[in-house]
Write a structure and sequence with these properties.
The protein is α+β, with helices and mostly antiparallel strands. The protein folds into two domains: 84 residues; 106 residues, 2-Layer Sandwich (Tetrahydropterin Synthase, Chain A). It is built from five helices and four strands, in the order ααβββαααβ. Strands 1, 2, 3 and 4 form a four-stranded antiparallel β-sheet that branches. A hairpin with an 8-residue loop joins strand 2 and strand 3. It is rod-shaped, with a radius of gyration of 50 Å.
Length: 219
């Protein structure tokens, strides 16, 4: 019995030493793993710091480069827009190939092929309900030189009361919003032109080329 107890005691000591040895071995292993983990984290942090440092050093230059490229592209686009077509134009030549001298000549020829008739001023109350407002206008008719100026001027003198009556009624149908702005004035000119040509040349070619405002005052 005593021998068995002694053997068991010795075996317990061996097991205890073995357990302590395994424990120390495990602790060393854990310490080693923890050290590797710490070193890996530090390496990662160092690499991140290096990356941030690199970006911090070169980011301003990259941004400036992108801005320069953007402005260069915008300048090229604006140049293409405002520079017109790539076809070179010689001085005095318009985009459609017609020279400015030719345009000026056409304008002079148009003036030479016309004469002008001045109508008497017309005053008409505007179509306004709250207050009395009126418009005063004086028209100049641009007539084609296909008509003899002396003979047709006399004809217009005879027809002027009819034209004046129509113009008065027409203006009296307009409100303030109908006569404000360039677009409305151009629309009024076109309407008068069509009406006068229809009354003077109902069955023939229109001979009034343009209606010009000598005066157009609203009071």
């Amino acid at each position: 019995m005593a021998e068995e107890k002694e053997e068991k005691k010795q075996q317990d000591k061996k097991d205890k030493k073995k357990e302590e040895k395994e424990k120390k071995k495990q602790e060393k292993k854990n310490a080693k793993d923890e050290k590797k983990k710490t070193e890996k984290q530090e390496d990662g942090k160092s690499e991140g710091d290096k990356r941030k440092s690199f970006i911090g050093r070169f980011l301003p230059g990259i941004i400036i480069g992108l801005i320069v490229v953007s402005f260069a592209g915008a300048g090229f686009t604006v140049g293409r827009i405002f520079g017109g077509s790539s076809t070179p134009q010689t001085p005095g030549t318009s985009e459609n190939g017609q020279t400015h001298d030719s345009k000026a000549k056409d304008s002079e020829d148009s003036e030479k092929n016309s004469w002008y008739y001045h109508m008497a001023p017309v005053i008409a109350n505007l179509n306004v309900s709250d207050v009395t407002r009126y418009v005063k206008t004086s028209l100049i008719l641009e007539i084609s030189d296909e008509l003899d100026q002396k003979k047709f001027s006399a004809y217009l003198d005879e027809k002027q009361p009819i034209l004046t009556n129509w113009l008065t009624v027409y203006l009296a149908s307009l409100g303030l919003d109908d006569i404000r702005g360039d677009n409305n004035l151009k629309r009024i000119q076109a309407h008068i032109l069509d009406a006068f040509n229809e009354k003077l040349f109902p069955d023939s070619k229109p001979q009034i080329k343009h209606i010009l405002f000598k005066e157009f005052a609203v009071q």
